[in-house]
Write a structure and sequence with these properties.
Oligomer: single chain
Distance between the termini: 51 Å
Number of strands: 4
Radius of gyration: 23 Å
Number of domains: 1
Largest sheet: 4 strands, mixed
Number of helices: 15
Shape: elongated
Length: about 300
């Protein structure tokens, strides 16, 4: 009996310690001053925790069912009107396909020759618009945007524009997006940045890359789009490199590996995450344990919706 009592007391103590740890991490998520990288690291740790999952989906039962309800509107805007939130933009990811024009024809897309608003090819089917907060800050789709910026910065791109829900900045929107991914997928995955960074490149580097890689087909397409006067590599190199300063002036500040949303890699889709945010059920605004006392829907139900 004594041994049973001692084991029970040990168990209770461990539970109390776990509860304290959970509350500390909830406080991290509830504090608007928490840095984005710390916020995402906390979500990665607890996304698959059952207690967190109940709290994360309790936005409609937290006493204010509309405070986290966002709007997601399909619209269009000039590519150069947008700003990155991600600090690194892949050099090859921005230029390689645009110099060689593989079978999915990304050059015709970027140049607007296949029509506007532009929706760049993607691994998702159908390809999604660029995800943007408040008509300005890119949340997802940086490399689809950067391809257009390097070839056709005045081109009109299709965007899904997120507003409302008490979000006041691009960082707020990134936090809410990552929280929603955790709530829907029970998982948060980010991708490391690999390769050379376009935002650290020089115009000379871009010119040399174009000269070495551009195909005759792409030269003809640049002429057709009235970007250069004739199919000449030197003209093309000067034109593409001339767009570098514009995209570099729109650089973000957040690490891809530590902060940027990856709904697909996390096990869901961006459309499903957007829908969850539109319902107001994602409890990203100051989440606390008492919010879960209502009848919050399960993540799988949202995922199937």
């Amino acid at each position: 009996m004594k041994l049973l009592i001692e084991n029970w007391r040990k168990f209770v103590k461990e539970v109390e310690q776990l509860d304290e740890l959970d509350q500390a991490n909830l406080d991290t998520l509830a504090n608007p001053q928490t840095p984005l990288a710390t916020y995402v690291a906390t979500l990665k740790k607890y996304a698959n925790d059952k207690s967190f999952n109940k709290i994360a989906q309790a936005g409609a039962a937290d006493g204010n069912p509309r405070d986290e309800q966002v709007s997601v509107d399909r619209t269009s805007i000039a590519a150069a009107s947008l700003y990155a939130t991600q600090a690194e933009i892949g050099f090859d990811a921005s230029l390689k396909d645009q110099m060689t024009n593989p079978s999915w024809k990304p050059v015709q897309k970027a140049l607007g020759l296949d029509g506007t608003p532009i929706i760049m090819p993607s691994q998702d089917d159908p390809p999604p618009p660029i995800l943007v907060f408040d008509g300005e800050f890119i949340l997802d789709g940086h490399h689809r945007w950067s391809q257009v910026m390097m070839m056709n910065p005045t081109g009109i791109v299709s965007i899904d524009n997120i507003t409302g829900g008490g979000l006041d900045s691009g960082e707020d929107a990134l936090k809410a997006m990552q929280f929603a991914i955790a709530a829907v997928a029970n998982n948060v995955v980010t991708k490391p940045f690999e390769g050379a960074n376009l935002m650290a490149a020089s115009e000379e580097q871009v010119q040399q890359y174009v000269l070495e890689n551009i195909t005759d087909e792409v030269l003809q397409l640049l002429v057709k789009a009235e970007k250069i006067a004739k199919p000449d590599k030197q003209l093309a190199a000067a034109y593409v490199a001339g767009n570098l300063e514009t995209i570099k002036s729109r650089a973000g500040k957040f690490s891809r590996e530590k902060a940027m949303p990856q709904a697909g890699k996390s096990g869901t889709s961006q459309d499903i995450v957007n829908h969850a945010l539109q319902t107001g059920k994602v409890n990203y605004d100051a989440p606390k344990a008492s919010d879960a006392s209502g009848n919050a829907p399960q993540a799988k139900r949202q995922k199937d919706a």
